[in-house]
Every structure is written in C-alpha cells, then in structure tokens.
Design goal:
It is found in: Cell membrane. By secondary structure, the chain is an alpha/beta fold. 11% of the residues lie in helices and 22% in strands. The strands form twelve sheets. The chain has a 36-stranded mixed β-sheet. Strands 57-59-63-65-67-69-70 form a seven-stranded parallel β-sheet, with no helix packed on it. The longest helix has 24 residues, at 2-25.
C-alpha cells in the first residue's frame, strides 16, 4: 500500500515540477513594449455605452485590466510570442477607446506586431497615420469603424506581409486611385480585403485585376466606384466570398460623405452636383454620376465561391450560368434591377442556404427547381413582379427559418395543411392577391414569431386553433376576412403586435379578453364590421406595455373604460365611431399619450364637468376633424405641448385673433381647413411649419406668413389684393416649400422673388393675376416640381428660364393669354410629366425634333384651344416614351404629403376636373387648333394613351388603323375634321373604348360592329352622310341593322375598384385595368363597362386555376 502511494506521489510531484519549470521558462513581456502599451492606453479615455454595440459585438473596456509592472502578456487583448515574449497580437476591438489618435503613438514602437485590431472604437476623426506602414510584420490589420478620417496613406502599401486588411467605415476614409494600385501591387499575400463604405471615386475598377491570386474575400460596399467592373474578378481561382454593393445612400449619408471628402477633387465635383441639385429627402440616391456597371459571367463560370452578394442598378437578366457555382451557400442579388424570370438553373445550387433576390423587377412564375434546394434556411423574393399560383412546394423546405414572398402578384390560396416547417420564424406573404381562408396551421408552427398576410384577398372566417405558440407579430390587415375575432388569439401570450384592421370581421367583441396579453405593444381592430366593441364598466386590468391602440371604425358608442387604465399608451385612435362625449377625467391616467385621434365622431362634445385642469404633458398630436366642433375648448388650449393639431371640416366660425391664438406656441402643424373662419391671425404661432386654412371664408389681404412656415395652404377662400413680397419669406431650410393660394380673388403680378425662392409647389390657379410670368429656376431655385397658374390673365411669352427647372413634373399654364410659339426647349426636362398649355395664344408650327429623347417622361399633353398650325408633330409622337409604355410606373397618384396635383380633361365634349392624377394616366389633347395634313401611323405606338383628342382641326386623309393598337384608349375624339374613307375595323379591338366621337367628317362605308362599337349611339357619327349601318338610320343593304349585344346605360352608381383590374395586366406588362377602374371611379362610367372588365378579370383567374 505504501509503495503504491509513493509511486503516485512521485507522479504528482513530477507533473507539478514540470508545469512550474515550463511556466518559468516562458519569457515575459519586454519592459519597453509593456511601457509602450501603457502609454498607448493613457492617450485615450474609456467610454462604454449602448451606442458602441455593433454587429452583436458587446463593448468591453479591455485595457482597464492593464497594470504597469505586471506581465503584459497576461493582459486582455494582448498576445505574445511563446519563445521571445514580444507582443505579436493586439485585439482592442470594441474596447471603448475614445480620443485623438496621435501620429507619434507609442503603438508604432511595437515592431513585432503581426495582428492589430482597433475596430469599433472612436478616434475622434483622426487621420490614419502614415506610421502604420512601419509595422512591417503585420499580417492582419483592422481599423474599421473607428472614427478615422481622411486619406488612406500610401504607406499602408508597405505592409507586404498583410493577408487581411479591413478599412471599413462610414464614408470617413478616402482611398485614392494611386494608393489602391500600390496596395494591390505590393500586398501579394492578401487574402481578405474589406472596404465597406470607403470612398473610392478615383479608383479604376480595372485595377482589381491586379489583386493577389490568393484573394478569398473581397468586400466592396458603397464605394462610389464608377465604370465597368471587370468580369474576370468573378473567375478568381480562390475567391470564396464576394460582396459588391453599388451604393444606395440617403441624403444624410451623402452629406457626411461630402463633408468628410470635400477636400479631395474626385469627391468635390460629385458633392457640388449633389448639393446644387437638392435631391428629394424621401428618395435614396446612388453614388456617382454613372455608377458601377456590373455584369455577371454568362458562360464558363465556376469556382469555389461560397458567398456572392452583389447589388447593382445595371443588372438586367440573371443567366443560367449562376447554376454552375455548386459551392454557393449564400446568394444575395437584392436591389439589382434584375428583369426577366428566375432561371431554373438555381436548382443546381444544392448547398444554398441563403437566397435573396428581393427588390428587383423579376417576373413570371417561380421555377419548381428552386423548391428542391433542401438546405435553404433563408428565402426572400419580395418586392418583385412574380406571378402565378403560390407554390405549395415552398412549404416543404424543412430548413426554412425565413420566408418572404411579399409584394408580388401571386394568387391562389394557402395550403390546407403544413406540418414540416418546424424552424420557420418569419412568414411574410403580404401584398399579393392570395384568396381563401386563413388556415389554422399558421398559428401552430412551433417556432413562428412573425406572420404577415397584410394586403391580400383572404376571406374567412379564421379557422380555430388551440396550440399556444411563440407568435409575437400577427398582421392580417387589409384583407376580406369575415366572421368573429377568434378567441384563441387571446391565448397567444407572447403577442407584441396584433393587427386585424381593414377586414370584414363581425360580431360583438369584449375588450376584456385582452387581459392575458401582457406583452402587447400594438393593437388594431380598425375598419371592420364589428357590431359593437365594449368593455366592462369596472375594468381594472391594464396592459402595461401597450403603446399603440387603433379602434377606428369599430362602432364604438362610448369611450372604452379599459382604455382609462392604459398608463403606458402613447397613441390612441378612436376615429370614425359614434362617441358623443369625451370627459377630461377619461385621460387622467394617460399621461404618456403622444397622439390622440377622435376625428369623425360627430357631434362630439368635449366636456370637463369636474373642472379638472388636465394637462397631458407629452401630447403632441391631436385630431378632431369632422366632429361638428364650433369653438376651441379649454381642454384644447391647455395642451401646451401640442405640435400637430387637426380641426378640419368642422363648423368653427368667426375669427382667431392674435390674442386668442397665443396658446399654440409649440404648434408646428395646424389644419383648420373646411371651416367657417373669416380671419386667422397666425403670427403668434412662432414655430408653425405647416398651416392649412383652405376652404374657409377668409377675407381681405393676404397676411405675411410666420417666419418658420414652409407649407401655406389658403386655397378656396375670399382673399383679395396683391400677393405681398413677404410671402417669399417661407422657410425652405428644413422642408419643401408648398404655397397654394388657388381659388381666391387675388390680383396684380406674381412677386418676382417667388421665382427666385427654392419653392417646391406653387399653385395660384383661378385668381385674377396678370402680367408676365416671372423667371423661375434662374438663380438657384432647383426644387420646383409643380407650377399651376391655370385660369388667370397672364400674358407675354413663356420665360426661357423654365428650361433650368430640372425637377419640374407638372407645368399647368392653361386658360391665360400667353402669346408664344411651342416651347420645344422644355423637352430637355427629364421629369416633366404634365404639360398643359390649353386656351392661350400659342401659335405657329411645332418644330420637328432633332433629338429623339425630348419629352421622354411626358404622359399628359394638352395644347387644345390655341392657334397652332401646320402638320401634327410626328417626331414628338416618337419621343413620347412614357406614352408608349408605363409598365415600370408604380400605380399611385401624383401627390405629396401636403398637396395633390389636379387637372381638367375634356371628355364627351365636357371639361371634367380630375382632383387627383393617376401616375399611369396618359392623355394627348391637340383639339381646337389649325393642324392640317394626315394623322400619322406612328400615333399607334402610344399604346398607353387613355384619352386622345384631335377634334376641331383641319386634318385630312384616312383614320390610321394603327389606332387599334392603343389598347388602353378609353376616349377617342376625331370630330370636326376633314377625314375620309372608312372607319378601320381594327378599332373594334379597343376593349376599353367608352367615348367615341367621329362626327362632322367625310367618312363613308359600314360602321364596324363588335365589342365597344355595339354601344355607341348615333351622336358618335353625325355629320358623316356616307356612313351606314347601326346605329345610324342609313342601311347598307341589309334588311335590318345588327342589334347591339350590350346596351349603354347612364347609370351613376358608385364603383369600387376591384382587384380583378390588376389581373388584367397579368405578367410583366402594363396593368391596363387600373386606368379603366380609375376613370370609372373618377367620372362614374356605366355598369356595362364595369361588368365587362370584371368578366375579363374572371377569365384570367380561370386560366390560372387550370394549373392548380
């Protein structure tokens, strides 16, 4: 026994002694290097905060543990050579170091350093010291996101042993062309190069061909590279990760880029262009004047690529060659302007785990092969034009954790059963045309956290479910879901958002069912068919985290009691209900409230029967629109923190004097439009930015605007006198200037200063203004987007300065006395979409274009009621690109946040005012002039036209049969000309044609029959004695005229735009049906046309169902 113990003691002694001797043999950190590190640390302060966290790197003050006199090899972040003790590695990433980085830093004394990581600190916008180039042993250098600024020094190229270099930042560093060329020439061992958001304007893309053949990782994002990126880079033999992002910046980012890089010539020109052009704040902007042209290889493309992330505005189609990259695990081509269909060859990428083709223009059906990629964990095809049935096989991809097919044109229904998506955490199918029921399995997936089916055509009722799953976010809004709200929703205790708004949910709902949803932050039941929504009178529970509650249009008859206890609530919407009384004590506990909407509860009484002095300290926005309010209440005037106030569409009468308005000192947005006010003295509202007083009874002269105001809307009042020059003081420093003084009795001339200001929208139509139109855009006013001077008395020629209004979209000068020739020089304006010159004294021939690209964005042109002569401008018809195709134009209206464009269209010989202009609405009106000659065949190329009017001219010759190609045409007027020959039978192909006027010509022969021509009456053809057949009385030899298949009706019933209009344009082409629906809604077309369009939509649906 003793021998055994002695043996084990010997073993333990040997191991212990050996360990101690090994430890003693390891050299400690040399004193000079330890001292250099202490000096380096002492040159900065330590400041950690939440703002330091980046890419899940939690900040840690590593250098706090550094103590002088201790072995630096044991310090956090320091690595020493095991043999010599020299410091060879320093990782101070996310170490909260703050302060200037001196060029003589003691860090540069550590000549043995091989790896240096200073990422995610803040070195106070210090330049990158050239002394970094003295650390010639470095193999890894990372100074990304550390607050360095300025030029990358040439000395970086001296680090010939570097295998990894990361200079990423936030447009703080500039890498000049000659420096980059030296880097790629000298750093022959480079394997990883990361240059995210480094300014590289002067770098020639061809220089990337000189990079090390060892390169495995290349990251280029937001660099401002311009020109053609060499295709050969995609063929580099060792390249495993390639990320190239053309760069999409918002103005705030651009401002920083320009401030930091302005000292460099390459950046200076771009920044000058940017600042002077003043790009709209709500638009993203691509770096560089021409951008980086990237083309993926179409043939012979293979290699070890595992990750490919490329974004470029110059992509076109994705070729089958992508299927040769069999090692790909990540493919991200989002935001790349891809067109065409998704290639089936993607199915070859069997290792693919991440596929993102979102934000492109891809169309057609989803290839079945994609759903054979069984390793996919991330699939995002959102925001494209993909169509066809929702592919059921996508729900068989068992590894999926993220599935986003939102904002496409998918139809069909959800599968009735899905059980294999155990890992799915996000499912987003919003913005399609899915129909059918909301299936119960959606609420039973064990990992699902986010479910969005917003904006489809789903019906109901919602199927019952009983599992409690981790769902946190449910958005089923904007569908057609019927039935009651399922009680099972209120067992989902993890819910933070529940949005069931804008459906057809019915029945009674007791708000007390919400009591279990303690994590709920947002809730919306708005816009349903609920018969009532109530809560117990003694409700004492609270939802402590609820911040936003929307119960608009819910048939609520009184203020819900449970709302009184929602102490954390910041936004409350009870609009469009039947609430009659609001008591001040209802808000006693709602001290966190920031936004309150009680609009459209009429009549609404704001009462304070208990004489409470109620102040909601954080209330910023209050809407009481359409509540039959007659005066300002005490509750209103005591809310000193209000910045947004909407009292529009009430019956507030009389005056608001300076004394009565002194309570709104913090107001920035005020809407008092559609009341009965006669005087509003708004000078006391010192912080006002948006003031809407339209449609009142305001009288007298126009008052000077508050100095802070940017938007002033005073249309449809009784203002008189001249426009004072003080109107030019509108503030344009923070937001776009919008001035609407239309429909008043103002007289005199436009103040010259208005043309010189940076104004965005100027609407003065329907006044009595006269004189010459002043110069616009002549001295720096580059922002003008809309100018409407219609129905005044302006005379003289058109100012040539309009040619400099490069952002002009709408120019309406109709119904004045302007005497000039056609302003062909406006054709260079790249964004001009609407040009109205009707009813003036324009004269002469329209000069033929030499440049075929002029007026390329124009889609509404009205030259009617002038004195133009000569032939029709054939060359212009060829250059109207937007009238030939609106396929890539997003459906919507021409309007901004505070202003909507309007215009008058002549249809059926009647002027119809369109209060909103659809973005796909295209018209050409050249009526009531002296044009002569023939109508050119090229008119048939303008296939997007909905209204064409050449009436009351001296046109001769035949009606071109090419007009039958204008498939969207809804109104055609060629009356009162000298046209001859027969009516082309091809015109019967115009399936949307609802207005036809060929009267007062010299047409002969049989009137074509079929489709829309069966609906036109005799007045479409009067004054053409040579015509015969239905509907005129003259027979063509037949015993009876053919009877029409459809009868026109003059029914003015309201029409709701149905989704089938969308399907009329199924595929990648133009959605014609929207225009038909739009015209019907705007001027109420008869039921027969509605039925025809809906029937066509049903035909399309039946075609899809054949493939189900």
């Amino acid at each position: 026994m003793e021998a055994w113990l002695l043996q084990w003691c010997f073993v333990f002694f040997f191991l212990f002694f050996n360990h101690k001797t090994c430890g003693l043999s390891q050299p400690s950190c040399p004193h000079d290097q330890s001292h250099a590190l202490i000096q380096f640390n002492n040159s900065f302060s330590i400041h950690c905060s939440d703002g330091w966290e980046y890419n899940y790197n939690v900040p840690k003050a590593k250098t706090v543990s550094w103590k002088e006199g201790t072995d630096c090899c044991l310090w956090d972040g320091v690595t020493c050579d095991a043999k010599t003790g020299n410091v060879i590695g320093l990782d101070l990433s996310s170490s909260c170091l703050v302060g200037p980085f001196p060029s003589n830093s003691s860090l540069f004394l550590l000549r043995h350093l091989r790896q240096l990581n200073l990422a995610h600190n803040y070195f106070s916008l210090s330049p990158v010291a050239s002394q970094f180039g003295e650390l010639t042993s470095l193999t890894h250098l990372n100074i990304s996101w550390s607050g360095f600024i300025g030029k990358v020094p040439l000395e970086i190229s001296h680090l010939s042993k570097l295998s990894s270099l990361d200079l990423s930042g936030f447009y703080d560093l500039v890498l000049e062309g000659h420096v980059f060329e030296s880097v790629v020439r000298n750093l022959t061992q480079l394997r990883h190069l990361v240059l995210s958001d480094v300014i590289m304007f002067s770098v020639e893309p061809a220089s990337f061909l000189n990079m090390s053949s060892y390169i495995t990782t290349l990251i280029l994002e937001g660099n401002g590279l311009q020109g053609k990126f060499p295709e050969d880079v995609f063929h580099f033999p060792n390249l495993e990760k390639l990320c190239i992002n053309d760069g999409f910046l918002f103005p705030n980012d651009l401002e920083k880029l320009c401030i930091n890089g302005f000292q460099f010539p390459d950046v200076e020109k771009f920044c000058l262009d940017f600042f002077y052009s003043q790009y709209p704040e709500n638009l993203s902007f691509k770096i560089g004047a021409s951008g980086l042209e990237i083309k993926l290889p179409k043939t012979n493309w293979s290699g070890p690529l595992k990750s490919l992330e490329v974004s470029s505005l110059y992509f076109q189609e994705l070729s089958d060659s992508i299927g040769n990259l069999r090692s790909l695990e990540i493919l991200d081509l989002s935001y790349s302007s891809l067109t065409g269909s998704i290639p089936a060859a993607l199915g070859n990428l069997t290792q693919l785990k991440h596929l993102d083709l979102s934000e492109n223009h891809l169309c057609g059906l989803l290839p079945i092969s994609v759903f054979n990629l069984t390793q996919l964990g991330f699939l995002d095809l959102s925001r494209n034009n993909l169509s066809g049935l929702l592919p059921i096989s996508v729900f068989n991809l068992t590894q999926l954790g993220f599935l986003d097919l939102s904002r496409n044109n998918l139809i069909g229904s959800l599968p009735s059963r899905v059980s294999r998506l155990s890992r799915l955490r996000l499912l987003d199918l919003r913005g399609n045309f899915l129909s059918g029921r909301v299936q119960s399995w959606l609420f039973s997936l064990p990992s699902l956290v986010v479910l969005s089916l917003h904006g489809n055509k789903l019906t109901g009722p919602i199927e019952q479910f009983d599992k409690v799953v981790p769902l946190e976010y449910i958005d089923l809004s904007n569908n057609e879901i019927q039935g009651p709200i399922p009680a099972a929703f209120f067992q989902l205790v993890n819910l933070t958002l529940l949005d069931l708004s804008s459906n057809k949910l019915s029945g009674n709902f007791e708000l007390d069912k919400l009591s279990k949803l303690s994590k709920l932050r947002e809730l919306s039941f708005s816009n349903n068919a609920l018969s009532s929504l109530s809560s117990a009178s003694n409700a004492d529970y609270s939802l402590p985290l609820l911040r936003k509650l929307s119960l608009s249009h819910c048939n609520i008859s009184e203020f819900p009691n449970f709302v009184r206890n929602l102490q954390g609530l910041t936004s409350l919407d009870l609009s469009y209900n039947g609430i009659r009384v609001i008591e001040a004590d209802m808000f006693l506990k709602l001290k966190s409230l920031r936004s309150l909407d009680l609009s459209h509860n009429s009549p609404l009484s704001l009462s304070n029967s208990n004489n409470l002095s109620l102040v909601l300290p954080f209330l910023e926005s209050l809407s009481l629109s359409s509540c039959n309010i007659t005066e300002f209440s005490n509750f209103l005037t005591t809310q000193e923190g209000l910045t947004n106030l909407d009292l529009s569409d009430n019956i507030i009468q009389g005056q608001i004097t300076k004394q009565e308005g002194n309570w709104g000192t913090n107001l920035q947005y005020v809407d008092l439009s559609d009341n009965l006010l006669t005087v509003v003295e708004y000078s006391s509202w010192k912080n006002i930015k948006v003031l809407k007083l339209g449609s009142n009874l305001l009288e007298g002269p126009l008052l000077p605007p508050p100095p802070s105001a940017s938007v002033l809307l005073l249309s449809d009042n009784r203002l008189t006198g001249e426009i004072p020059s003080t109107i030019c003081n509108l503030n344009h420093s923070e937001m776009d200037v919008v001035l609407d003084l239309s429909r008043n009795n103002l007289s005199g001339a436009i103040p010259r200063c208005l043309g010189l200001r940076n104004i965005f929208v100027l609407d003065l139509h329907m006044n009595h203004l006269h004189g010459n139109i002043p110069d616009f855009c002549s001295e720096g006013n580059y922002r003008l987007q809309t100018l409407n001077l219609n129905k005044n008395d302006f005379d003289g020629p058109l100012p040539k300065s309009f040619a400099y209004c490069h952002h002009l979209e709408v120019l309406n000068l109709g119904n004045n006395k302007i005497n000039d020739t056609f302003p062909h020089w406006l054709g260079t304006l790249p964004q001009l979409q609407v040009l109205v010159l009707r009813a003036n004294y324009f004269h002469g021939q329209i000069i033929h274009l030499e440049n075929g690209s002029q007026f390329s964005a124009l889609r509404i042109l009205d030259l009617s009621h002038n004195e133009f002569s000569g032939f029709l401008p054939t060359t212009y018809f060829k250059s109207f690109k937007s009238m030939t195709s609106l396929a890539n134009v997003q459906m919507g209206y021409m309007e901004g946040e505070y202003y909507r464009d309007s215009m008058v269209v002549t249809m059926k010989g009647v002027d119809v005012e369109l209060e909103r202009i659809l973005t796909i609405f295209a018209t050409l009106d050249m009526s009531c002039n002296r044009f002569e000659g023939t109508i050119p065949e090229t008119i048939g190329n303008l296939v997007s036209l909905q209204v064409l009017n050449f009436s009351h001219n001296h046109l001769s010759g035949h009606i071109p049969s090419s007009l039958g190609n204008v498939a969207a045409l809804e109104s055609l007027d060629l009356s009162c000309n000298e046209l001859v020959g027969e009516i082309p039978s091809k015109l019967t192909d115009l399936l949307f044609l609802e207005v036809l006027n060929l009267s007062e010509n010299h047409l002969v022969g049989l009137i074509p029959q079929g489709n829309q021509f069966n609906t036109f009456l005799n007045d479409s053809y009067v004054g053409n004695p040579g015509l015969c057949g239905f509907p005129v009385s003259k027979s063509c030899g037949h015993s009876e005229p053919p009877s029409p298949g459809i009868h026109a009706q003059d029914d003015d019933s309201a029409f709701r735009l149905d989704w089938k209009f969308v399907m009329m344009g199924y595929g990648c082409g133009l959605v014609f049906g929207f225009s038909a629906g739009y015209i019907m809604m705007t001027i109420r077309k008869p039921k027969w046309l509605v039925g025809m369009v809906q029937g066509a939509g049903s035909t399309v649906l039946r075609r899809f169902k054949k493939y189900d």
